[in-house]
């Protein structure tokens, strides 16, 4: 098949042929992109709002959530996000999906994590890249769109319930509480953080109890909150 890109000039390497005697053009014409099963990719955005300048306690912090209007996890609350287009950079997907589902646009976002457990979506093998932003609620207007049945700011708080250290690893159990009185939403999720304590610190956030928050989005929110607290 023809090259995925129009301009392949930066992929010539040293210009030599491969072991089969092929030039880059010949290799690409023969290459089968469906030789390996291809996962789907999405982005999800944790958008926080805080009145005034945020402090270490993050009092009054809110998170922007949508209520899913379609399967899977229909009716549950989730982060705004969706599938990437084939010729679209990840950060552009995050911005586009945020605007399509909530009407919010023009925010500065930071990539914070990738979640790729194989069983996180029943439709396909879906890997998501998570982004985070902090905005002034007064500067943005929220309106649900696309496949979001609703989009609202929700009060959010995080409490560490238990911390255990053993054999060079730390396990923290967090309580994540999310609420919005107008939507009669009040839910709690439990998330476990596991981290190594050595020079290389592998870290993973895992949902133990999701509450009314879809899939692994409670873990993504907790990871974003932990990062925000650490910086403050």
Task: Write up what this structure looks like.
The model has no long low-confidence stretch (mean pLDDT about 95). It is globular and about 65 Å long. The protein is built from 3 helices and 10 strands. The protein has helices spanning about 25-30, 90-100, 215-230; strands at about 40-50, 60-70, 75-80, 80-85, 110-115, 125-135, 150-165, 170-180, 185-195, 205-210. Strands 1, 2, 3, 4, 5, 6, 7, 8, 9 and 10 form a 10-stranded mixed beta sheet that branches. It starts with about 25 loop residues before the first helix and ends with a helix. The protein has a single domain (about 40-230), classed as Nucleoside Triphosphate Pyrophosphohydrolase. About 15% of the residues lie in helices and about 40% in strands. By secondary structure, it is an alpha+beta fold.
Q: Can you describe this structure in just a few lines?
A:
This protein has helices at 24-30, 90-102, 217-231; strands at 40-49, 62-68, 77-78, 81-83, 110-115, 126-135, 148-166, 169-180, 185-196, 203-209.
Present the secondary structure layout.
Elements: H1 24-30, E1 40-49, E2 62-68, E3 77-78, E4 81-83, H2 90-102, E5 110-115, E6 126-135, E7 148-166, E8 169-180, E9 185-196, E10 203-209, H3 217-231
Parallel strand pairs: 1-6
Antiparallel strand pairs: 1-2, 1-4, 2-3, 2-7, 5-6, 7-8, 8-9, 9-10
